[in-house]
Design brief:
Blueprint (H helix, E strand, L loop, with lengths): L1 H18 L5 H20 L17 H31 L1 H7 L4 H15 L2 H13 L8 H27 L5 H14 L11 H7 L3 H14 L4 H36 L6
């Protein structure tokens, strides 16, 4: 276990040195999410939320509603981007060296996702927390619910990244996955618009993305003072998603490992 965590830390440090060595990159990581958030916020300003059918949205907390969405989205977006960058290591030959080493494949994937999920999101997280703190009167936080939901959200984001890393590593062309998992996740997961007002076909698509359940739970416990009893179904689904993501990742690693041993070629698809 100690060796496993050493591999995780080593991979995280390597990715940090590769992609976050220039401090100016944090400006771009902050600028684009904030601009997108501001565009959404001022779009909402044109509407009257009195009598809104959604229990935890009103004219006072719409800012926090959107901030929670964009902060959570920054975590999930960062791990998708990390997988896209990590797939380049297969093209450069780095991945072959990793497979020749005794390093745990799962630890390498976790290290890559772990580095990106915090490095790419930290500026947006700080900005969001400051804005939420300045508008804290609009919060109705259930402390116990928040303590439970936040770790579940972080684990889900990390394992989503590990799973996407596993998918990205073993294909010749994974750019289409980046396209599928980037913008649709933002649209259908309820980052800007609550899933509850989507038509039926859009709700079905939203069920695919783990971010949908994470956002619903986060908003319920922070904006609606909902306890665990209220969100227990969402929490149970989130835990099941975590288990499925881990299981599918391990299966993918095993399948590709067998393929590599048989053919000597790391490209599965």
């Amino acid at each position: 276990m100690k060796y496993f965590f050493k591999v995780v830390l080593a991979e995280s440090y390597k990715q940090h040195r590769n992609y976050f060595n220039n401090k100016m990159i944090y400006v771009s990581l902050f600028l684009w999410p904030v601009l997108s958030f501001m565009a959404s916020y001022y779009s909402y300003k044109a509407f009257d939320f009195e009598g809104c059918a959604i229990s935890y949205i009103n004219s006072c907390n719409i800012l926090i509603f959107l901030l929670i969405g964009y902060m959570a989205m920054s975590f999930f977006r960062s791990v998708v981007q990390s997988a896209w960058r990590f797939s380049q290591e297969r093209q450069s030959g780095t991945l072959e060296y990793i497979y020749l080493s005794p390093a745990s494949r799962l630890a390498v994937l976790i290290g890559n996702a772990l580095s990106s999920v915090f490095e790419s999101s930290i500026v947006m997280l700080v900005f969001g927390c400051l804005m939420i703190f300045s508008n804290r009167r609009s919060l109705h936080v259930n402390v116990v619910g928040t303590v439970v939901v936040v770790p579940i959200f972080l684990i889900m984001a990390l394992l989503w990244g590990v799973f996407i890393n596993a998918c990205f590593l073993y294909s010749r062309d994974t750019d289409f996955l980046f396209t599928i998992l980037e913008e649709p996740m933002e649209i259908f997961s309820g980052v800007k618009i609550p899933v509850s007002i989507f038509p039926g076909w859009a709700r079905l698509i939203s069920c695919i993305f783990p971010l949908t359940y994470a956002l619903e739970a986060l908003r319920q416990v922070t904006l609606n003072n909902s306890g665990l009893e209220t969100i227990k179904i969402t929490v149970i689904i989130s835990i099941l998603i975590i288990i499925v993501l881990l299981a599918v990742t391990l299966i993918t690693i095993h399948i590709v490992e067998q393929h590599v041993r048989k053919t000597g070629n790391i490209i599965l698809f």
